[in-house]
């Protein structure tokens, strides 16, 4: 990727960013917690995949044969045998690791914790947590509505819905079995896909559009999508199985559907299947957000898994390269980012250098997670996925520049120190 590509694509982003200025401005100051969470999750992902598997994979592979009664018996016999005592201690430590970093309601009972380490795991939450989440209103994307819209926002939303209906018809016609092959074979016709994606893929068309576009950009796509999750899931219990299980409750906590035990289990199955399908890389933290968004829209686990697979390995995307070889791809992308930052926002670039703020403090959340772990409005998150699917990784660079543009005055302020700069 060259900085030239990023600069050329920035113009298209700026057109869309005008419509989302208010969303960017209202949310940029709220990203304090998101940056730190994403950074810690990304920095710990490689350590967990290397250091934890030797002990935790043993626990996850042996526990399927245990029942809840076995756990209670082991705890009673712990005073008699030292080996049982060590096992109980290990389980206690694992339980603390599960509950400590979660962003949603952690399991409140020992039975819930034990359930997470069964095979298949039980990700059930207490009924009062479900009732509280289901009592809150949700938007068309499935996200909890945090506040009532203003009259002006309602007016704009109604106008947008009218345009959305018109765009739905255009996308459905474009993606028909008769037209789609012709569009893929003609670069000029494929430009329509790009220009329409910039305006936003209609919400009802997203599942099909994402799947078709990702399939077209991966020459090595899965030959058999049907039953692909089960096929790869059954191969083995991965060494990072514990990491996958711990990440499930952290994923999209603002979406009530991901409090449902069956949805969480499907997400676990997809991530474990991907780990087994790409055994040279495996699973890393951050992949769970991409898989969850696909599962949220596609419902079918095989289609969601196929889309994740194509996003990771597609020629235009190659998202897996960011994770590979000790995040070597991310480090290279960070170099491109710093060149773009210096070219377009020299004062901000100088300020970050002076404060010794390394890109690895914030780009894991931006580029590995594609901003999906941040507290952005749901419509903006979906537009980010639209552009990532259509344009690839360069779109994430453009969005990063848009965030800097919205906060340039604060970031470049001579009085601004680390406590002001990092949250932005």
Pick out its properties.
single chain, 424 residues, mainly alpha, globular
Overview of this protein structure:
This protein has 24 helices and no strands. The protein has 424 residues and is mostly helical. The longest helix has 25 residues. The protein starts with a helix and ends with a helix. 36% of the residues are buried.
Topology (SSEs and partners):
Elements: H1 3-19, H2 21-28, H3 32-51, H4 53-62, H5 68-76, H6 82-99, H7 110-116, H8 127-134, H9 151-174, H10 180-184, H11 187-199, H12 206-216, H13 228-233, H14 241-247, H15 261-277, H16 287-298, H17 301-313, H18 320-344, H19 346-354, H20 363-368, H21 378-391, H22 394-406, H23 408-412, H24 418-421
Helix pairs in contact: 1-22, 11-21, 12-17, 15-16, 15-17, 16-17, 18-19, 21-22
Q: What is the total tally of β strands?
A: 0
Rounded mean pLDDT is 78
- Cα gyration radius (Å): 22 Å
State which percent range the strand residues make up. under 5%
What about the largest sheet? none
The end-to-end distance, rounded to whole angstroms, is: 26 Å
- Helical element count? 24
Globular, elongated, flat, extended or rod-shaped: what is the shape? globular
- Given helix and strand content, the structural type is mainly alpha
- From N to C, what is the helix and strand string? HHHHHHHHHHHHHHHHHHHHHHHH
Low-pLDDT residue intervals, each spanning 5 or more residues: 1-110
Percent in helix = 55-70%
